[in-house]
Amino acid sequence: MTELRTESANDLTDQDRSAANNLDRLNEPSLLKRAEKSLFALVWLTPAGVILGVFFIAPMIYAIYLAFTNLELLGPTAQHFNFTGTANFLRMIHDPVFWYSLKLTLVFVVLSGVVAQTVLGLALALLAQRAHFVVKTTVGAIVVLAWVVPEIAAAFMWFAFAQAHGILSDVIGRPSDDLLAYSAMVVVCVANAWRGTAFSMLILSAGLRNVPLEVEEAAQLEGASYWRRLTRITLPMIRPTIMTNMILVTLGTLSDFTLVYAMTGGGPGNATSILPVYMYIQGFTFNQLGYATMLALVLVLLGALLSVFYIRQLRPELRKAEAS
After folding, report:
1. Is residue 229 a contact partner of residue 281, using CB atoms and an 8 Å limit?
2. Of 279, 287, 277, which is closest to residue 70 (Cα–Cα)?
3. DSSP string for 192-212
4. pLDDT in tens, 191-247
5. Helix 96-107 vs helix 184-209: crossing angle, to nearest 10
6. What are the φ and ψ backbone dihedral angles of 73, each rounded to 5 degrees?
7. Which of 30, 131, 286, 299 has the fewest CB atoms within 10 Å, measured from its CB?
8. What are phi and psi of 268, to 5 degrees?
9. What is the Cα–Cα distance from 108 to 184, expressed in whole angstroms?
10. How do residues 108-126 score in pLDDT, each as one tens digit?
11. In contact, 259 and 251? CB cutoff 8 Å
12. In the chain, count of helices (H) and strands (E)?
């Protein structure tokens, strides 16, 4: 009996081995196909990787290096600059104008970008959804026209508006006041919101089109008011669109230079010296390119932190999308 059991066990072992060998043979072609697909994808991605490395990664690494040097635009260190360690970093930390510029940048981004452009863009998108065709077309054309105007042209327009005896000064009842001398940051924020609202309107209009009409009609039949439908149904359903718009608006406003510099040059004094403007002044007015590069890295880091914050807010929607 023991010999029979041993023989049957050996037979089963041989069968298992043969089955495993057959599975390995069947898996060999699939492994080869996977390797071929990976190699094929690598070949097609190589040019993009080379371009990314040459035009983005390499300049970024070089910029990080320049931020720790005494590079200047003119003078003996324009060509023969040296590594200075943390000198620029320590200078930045003890620079009161830098901290004031950072505060102005956050105010400019939050007020004129995130709040103003998002709120106005949403209001115009909702208006376009419910208004008469003529009103919708007229308002949309005016708003989009402000967006397609070149930034330098918009800057000169608002510069003329805010001058003494300009249109804006006359409208607010202070025709003899130069508003850029008294309220420069407010005027710059209004100009930026005026110019960028159309982008938010277009993005949020696309998001509103994705809200099912059946849901709103069902809520309306149940007696829900327009405000209740807006806050409980519409806005939660377009939340990913709102967050995406806020990311794009934040990054665009954070790097805004032309509008502010053309209107005020960072003045009066340092009243409108947001980080891009202060970086330009340090690099091309005071010739401190190494210090200006350090300020640029802070600007990049600030944009990265804000982007991470927005993406973390989108995590619930991303998890739902993965689950579905």
Report:
1. no
2. 287
3. HHHHHHHHHHHHHHHHHHTS-
4. 999 999 999 999 999 899 888 888 888 888 888 888 888 888 889 889 889 999 999
5. 40
6. -75, -40
7. 30
8. -70, 135
9. 12
10. 999 999 999 999 999 999 9
11. no
12. 18, 0
The residue to which tokens 């804006």 are assigned: 168
What the block records as the tokens of 261 is 């510099």
On whether the CB atoms of residues 131 and 267 are closer than 8 A, the answer is: no
The SS3 of residue 236 is helix
**3-state SS class at 254:** helix
Q: Cα-Cα-Cα-Cα dihedral of 152, 154, 155, 158, to 10°?
A: 160
With the C-alpha atoms ordered 129, 135, 139, 140, is the resulting torsion angle positive or negative?
positive
Structurally, at CATH architecture level, domain 96-323 sits in: Orthogonal Bundle (1.10)
Q: CA-CA distances (angstroms) from residue 19 to 10, 27, 29, 30?
A: 14, 12, 17, 17
**Tokens representing 231?**
């806050």
